């Protein structure tokens, strides 16, 4: 099944932020959404429970963590009225360069990343 695509037909009049705020209600996702979220890019030395929970808490409330290699999964309760993070630069040590950690929301595949980033 192809995902629904939402495109602003008249972006000078239709405001993407207002539409983005209206979509969760239209999709019956008001309040909070639970999502298994993949975190990709956490260095191996930092893939422990406390660090993963801290990174996940940037997105919402973490209730479960699965740590099986380079890709970490966490069940996170996300406030649907807030912006979704798809990439976050995380500083693991104060003197190191920040590392790019990418997030993939498994049950939110119908969400348009470009709409949330506008």
What does this entry look like structurally?
With 118 residues, this protein is an alpha+beta fold. It is built from 3 helices and 5 strands. Strand 4 and strand 5 form a beta hairpin.
Radius of gyration, in Å, reads 16 Å
- Helix content range of the residues, please? 10-25%
Count of individual domains: 1
CATH architecture: 2-Layer Sandwich
* First-last Cα distance: 26 Å
Organism: Brassica campestris (Field mustard)
Protein name: DUF4283 domain-containing protein
Please write out the topology.
Blueprint: H1 16-26, E1 32-40, H2 49-56, E2 61-67, E3 71-79, E4 87-90, E5 99-105, H3 113-117
Antiparallel strand pairs: 1-3, 1-5, 2-3, 4-5
Summed up, what is this model?
This protein has 118 residues and is α+β, with helices and mostly antiparallel strands. The chain contains three helices and five strands; from the N terminus they run αβαββββα. It comes from Brassica campestris.
């Amino acid at each position: 099944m192809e995902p629904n695509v939402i495109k602003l037909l008249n972006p000078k009049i239709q405001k993407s932020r207002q539409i983005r705020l209206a979509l969760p209600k239209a999709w019956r996702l008001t309040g909070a959404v639970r999502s298994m979220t993949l975190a990709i890019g956490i260095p191996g030395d930092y893939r422990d429970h406390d660090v993963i929970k801290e990174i996940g808490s940037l997105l919402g409330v973490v209730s479960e963590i699965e740590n099986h290699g380079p890709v970490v999964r966490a069940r996170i309760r996300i406030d649907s009225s807030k912006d979704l993070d798809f990439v976050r630069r995380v500083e693991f040590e104060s003197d190191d360069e920040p590392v790019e950690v990418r997030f993939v929301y498994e049950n939110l595949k119908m969400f348009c990343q470009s709409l949330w980033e506008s």
